[in-house]
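Supplementary Methods, section 5.1.

A reviewer requested that the exact input to the structure prediction be made available. We therefore reproduce it here, unchanged from the version used in the analyses.
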Amino acid sequence: MSSRKRSTRSAGLLLFRRPSGADRAGFEVLIAHMGGPFWAGRESAAWSILKGEYGPDEEPAAAARREFEEEFGRPAPEGEWVALGEARQSGGKTVTVWALEADLDAATAVPGTFTMEWPRGSGVLREFPEVDRFAWYPPQEAVERLVTGQRVFLDRLREHVEGGWVTPAQDGS
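The structure derived from this sequence is encoded token-by-token as follows.
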């Protein structure tokens, strides 16, 4: 048996929409600015796909659906899920992502919260939102905002929207 730590797995859902008047290849993605004091004031590489960790007893699609609802505060919209595959992050986490074409009003989100000691070492526990804001961006803007290891999913989604991506027979229904 290996003494190496078991790798962490995460699953998420990347919503995309085609703005009215956009050509077939034009689209925007819904991404989330990470909450808490570490991410405050940062824009570049401080945004994420709505995702979260899951254990060995949970299916990735179920985790993606659960995490969307926990982070956005509303259930994932209905529709066809497009598998965008997996990517290994620099920290060793493997992320699995699906895309879903849907249009939600980012202002209606009610994100979950977490508690942490802040400032560190103070003994004071404070509550922070998991996500402090959501926004729709075209891929060329989203790529600079997303954490580096998630940018590959924008490329895969672009290929899908432009008609070149072949998806596995997998959905989040």
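The radius of gyration is 17 Å. These observations are discussed further in the main text.
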